[in-house]
Amino acid sequence: MDDDESHFGEGEPFTLGLEEELFVVDADSGRLRNAGPDVLEQLGELERGEVKNELHRSQVELITGVCATVGEAVAELMQLRRAVLATGVGLLASGTHPTAVEGDSIFSDNERYERIRGWLGDAGATPVCALHIHVGMPDAATAIRVFNGLRRHLPLLEALGANSPFRHSRDTGLASARELTLRAWPRAGAPRAMADFDDFRRSTARLTHVAEVPDYTFHWWKLRPHPRLGTVEIRALDTQLTARHTAALAAAVHALARHEARAEPVEGPPPEILEEASFRAAREGVNATLPDGEDCLRPVGELLAETVALVRETAVELGCEGQLDGLAGLLADGGGAGLQRAACADADVEAVLKTLVDRAGGTTRDRAAAS
User: Fold this and answer.
1) Distance (Å) of CA 190 to CA 49, 120, 236, 336
2) Is residue 371, in this structure, part of any structural domain at all?
3) What is the CATH number of the domain that holds 357?
4) 125: which DSSP letter?
5) pLDDT tens digit string along 175-201?
């Protein structure tokens, strides 16, 4: 990575950007459609944000502009969703498609994605969808400080964000089957803490060389500094079923990032503990018990209450206190995984598809809670 690729501090610090990957489906049945390129051709001019193709033709990615608040960012995402829905397709917001099987989805015809297909082989055959959250950084040193600080919060965020219990028409027994799928990918876990930005650059350059990939954007870490965009990015969350859940998680990340920029550095968990905690989060979602700083296992609800108290003043400063309080509702819902399982009446996965498709445009309650 060359020095001129670092853009920390070029924009307003602690702004927010969201990227949401969604499945393109039949509006009636919820079945996958390899219609992503057709959607892009039909889209008219967008007021803000961007819609792009993804690794599979059955996906699209919605990308907001740089936003000042969580409410602004989530409202922009919902506007982009409505623009896509206006082309006549359906959308499905889940980390995995509940009923699709290998072979249903076709890889996109794109040089970058063709490379990925060649590297991953069958490991990339099952498409997955994530919510990525970017927070703008004032300088490289702060970016590393925030990156290191956020590592310890990853398992809690993953537990709250788990929204993919179904895969291949069955309940996987996990709250996030997307996590299970991505564990077959290289460079997809959580990296170690970094001493400083030079340490990050050296480590990144070495891994890029050993992996024989073009640059660090092929390091699919759950959390990473993103010098090219001047942000720290969390990539560990499933795409969310509701705008309320998206807003609550974005508020948590926004407030935590600002908090960690000011807080005394805290030594995060070693990689093996963080890896185990992430699996526990993916297995049980909001019902998980996770290690705290002393490696005592504690319920997600307890850790969430402490985290919200830790960042409440910061959330008020950022204008996202209302969305942060939405985490209590997310917990009560059982997260996205809980809502999906509740929709699976009489073990009918087709009912889950209907619920997901119906919710893609957002309900009045979702839009009010996200604003």
Assistant:
1) 28, 19, 9, 23
2) no
3) 3.30.590.20
4) S
5) 999 998 999 888 999 999 999 999 999
